[in-house]
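Handout, section 4.2: multi-component inputs.
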Amino acid sequence: MSATVLYMSMSLDGFIAGPNEGPGNGLGDGGHRLHEWALTGADADRKGVGRSAGVNGQVVDEFMATGAVVAGRGTFEPAGGWGGDHHDGVPIFVLTRQKPDSETGQWPLVSYVSDVSTAMTEAKQAAGDKNVLVHGAGTAQLALAAGVLDELEIHLIPVLLGQGRRLFDHLGPEHIELERTRVLDGDGVTHMHYRVQR
Amino acid sequence: MSAAIFDMSMSLDGYISAANPRPEAPLGEGGEALHAWARDDDPPGRDMLNRDVAGTRAMICGRTTYDVSIPWWQADGPTRTESPR
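Output:
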């Protein structure tokens, strides 16, 4: 049975991007710090993710073995749509309320979906027995609220960013219980895996 | 040289108490869940807590934290000489 799994790098104070996100500054000011663990080179702006050694490489391999991608437009566009192919030609479902422009609308692997539950259902169907890679804070919040996120893999970075975009904003007062299913001690990062209890 | 160590229970989304704290529920609605790891019925958590307390000779906390802690730790706090209940 495949699962929808959120993969996000987060600072200890809960941020997944620095302040002043925008075109050419997709991770916000200083936000590259959160992704150093996944990059083989020091350049956080390079496209794609390199193969790190050990535990970090294992986690990268896991999310690069997923069978579909669900991401919000706020993740998809700063990433240049990953050139239309995130990895291995798996289908990409972009959560958005707006119509795409003509260029990105023509990528054959990319579908635009306005509803998070529909996006997750279609991505699971497309992924077959593989898991679905979920990216983005807005998408995570919508998916948690709708009860369609199965698991979280949080790459916890030992830094306090102080400001930026929070992963767990706008969730409302209901507690969402998580079962911790794995903790991996990587170089410069702790990978924590949770299953959402429903 | 000794160190000052900040020690808190926190939810994954960064909260240290739940909503609507009040005298009869000082940790808020359901906030006790953040401290379940340190209860008597969780031996690994209890052992960790006892090790942390054993390595501590002084505490600094805010008045709110102190007042809320009295039902658990009594007035002299976790570092008093007798063992916690």
